[in-house]
Amino acid sequence: MVLTKVSLGDLFKVKSSDSSKFRIYTNKIDRKHIDFLLCNPKSMIPFLAIELDDKSHERKDRKGRDEFIEQVFKAANLPLLRVPVRHTYAVAEVASLLQPYIQSDLIRPLPADDKLQPAWAPPKCAKCGSDMIQRSAKSGPNQGNKFWGCSNYPQCRNIQPFVE
Asked: How far is CA 80 from CA 71, 73, 142, 146, 147, in A?
């Protein structure tokens, strides 16, 4: 699961018995964000942060900010991957950057059309090819049971059983 522009204040909490240091570091953390946060799709536990570095990261003030952020991530034992900003990225190159951090069973081999397909991606609708959405029956004998429903509803009413 990829989250974008995540505030460090949503990820980290400062622990300090010194109230002055607590406020200083809380303020420093609350005012910063990272570009991407990768989380386990089942538990939503973060396992990798990604920061895109453009030319502004070469400035002295930004280097200090970047160093502080790296210390925060290191203290939390959460990897931070810095990636240079580019106009375009090759999917295979991005996959190779992420591979050391992603469990091998979460990424399937690249299909012929060069798109990453996570193993936990929703199934495709057999009728129209749209993504299926996990839903729960609201009434009837299957009330509360999960199933896959076509995201193209009501144009397509295809459903599939949900298997955990």
From this structure: 10, 7, 44, 36, 36
